[in-house]
Q: What sequence folds into this?
């Protein structure tokens, strides 16, 4: 009797704590999509000095963010002991992972702001539709990961899965934009 | 791990985003204010200078109000941008372009000297045709432009070219003015930029040679 009443409440409040970060992340994704769709794109934005135009600037900044994301992936693999030959990760790996992640995130923001403000959520081709959807998803997923990190008692697979989703989203974003720029317009500043 | 690190990261990102949006909004406001300031004085000077080009046109009789079967193209200033309107048999096509960031294609009808056209993204044009000139307002890209355009004769006029460049639909528009000046832009699908020069009807868009068509007003 006492056994049953103590286990049920613990389980439901544990799951409830996980729902909140996902709801917040979902709200972030939806808010970005709605803003991108409803806001009238202005085709103007702050000019980035040294680049031929906003598109070139975004392409290179996004590529730099992706380089840091690769560092993210590598350091995560090291932390979880998945890198062959590196059973015990050095003590600074965690710091490297956190800071490379912060830099990648902060680099992605000006690119995303220009996308949202000057171009908007578009669907006239598969590439731009995928990019628009992934853009909304990336920031929602990143929010979820940040909100989950300080929590205790999470299933061991949850943080790596969230990290994987964030990385995959950013890879997809890079492929549908920067790679398109390099192959269609050229590798130029 | 530090409990506050992730939240601070999110907060920093949010602050950066808000800061950039504020800068973007102020840049847009400045650009729009400069636009409306350019509208007023330019409209006055254009009306004073349009008579000379029309009298210098090879066939002055073409400045008559368009009759059925006659094709007329008007070109002139729209604020700090340029506009061209091609009219034929009650149909019209217009192209607004500032040569670097904004362009809009519009089409519609002309009836009893009144032009009314619409275009993508809530673009619209209303105006009148009288005495060899077109006057009115265009609404595009979230703002308004007042225009005055006079009749122009070929090779001046409105040109358009489209091509499929590596899977992307690329469209170029050019307004060729009587003084030989060209104002044009190319839409690469997700960004627009100033168009390369048009030589006769030939141009190169995204590395592909294209042939532009001079629009007569019956369609894009």
A:
């Amino acid at each position: 009797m006492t056994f049953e009443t103590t286990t049920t409440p613990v389980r439901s409040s544990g799951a409830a704590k996980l729902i909140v970060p996902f709801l917040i992340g979902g709200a972030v994704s939806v808010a970005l999509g709605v803003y991108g769709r409803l806001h009238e794109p202005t085709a103007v934005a702050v000019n980035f000095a040294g680049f031929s135009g906003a598109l070139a600037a975004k392409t290179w900044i996004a590529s730099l963010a992706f380089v840091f994301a690769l560092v993210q992936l590598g350091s995560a693999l090291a932390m979880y002991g998945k890198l062959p030959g590196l059973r015990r990760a050095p003590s600074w790996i965690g710091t490297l992972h956190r800071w490379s992640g912060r830099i990648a995130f902060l680099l992605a923001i000006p690119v995303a702001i220009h996308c949202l403000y000057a171009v908007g959520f578009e669907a006239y081709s598969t590439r731009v539709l995928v990019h628009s959807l992934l853009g909304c998803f990336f920031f929602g997923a990143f929010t979820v990961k940040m909100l989950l990190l300080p929590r205790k008692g999470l299933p061991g697979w949850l943080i790596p899965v969230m990290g994987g989703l964030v990385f995959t989203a950013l890879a997809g974003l890079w492929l549908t934009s920067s790679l398109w720029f390099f192959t269609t317009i050229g590798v130029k500043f | 791990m530090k409990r506050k690190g992730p939240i601070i990261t999110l907060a920093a990102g949010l602050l950066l985003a808000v800061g950039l949006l504020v800068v973007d909004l102020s840049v847009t406001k400045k650009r729009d204010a400069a636009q409306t300031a350019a509208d007023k004085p330019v409209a006055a000077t254009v009306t004073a200078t349009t008579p000379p080009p029309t009298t210098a046109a090879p066939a002055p009789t073409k400045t008559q109000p368009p009759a059925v079967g006659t094709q007329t193209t008007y070109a002139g200033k729209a604020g700090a941008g340029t506009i061209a309107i091609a009219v034929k048999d009650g149909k019209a096509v217009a192209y607004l372009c500032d040569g670097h960031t904004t362009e809009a294609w519009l089409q519609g009808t002309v009836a009893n000297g009144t032009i009314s056209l619409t275009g993508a993204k809530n673009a619209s044009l209303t105006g009148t045709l009288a005495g060899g000139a077109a006057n009115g307002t265009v609404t595009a890209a979230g703002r308004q432009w007042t225009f005055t355009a006079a009749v122009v004769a070929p090779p001046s006029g409105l040109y358009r070219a489209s091509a499929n460049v590596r899977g992307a639909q690329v469209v170029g528009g050019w307004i060729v003015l009587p003084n030989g000046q060209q104002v044009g832009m190319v839409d690469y699908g997700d960004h627009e930029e100033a168009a390369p020069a048009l030589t006769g009807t030939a141009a190169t868009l995204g590395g592909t040679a294209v042939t532009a068509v001079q629009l007569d007003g019956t369609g894009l």
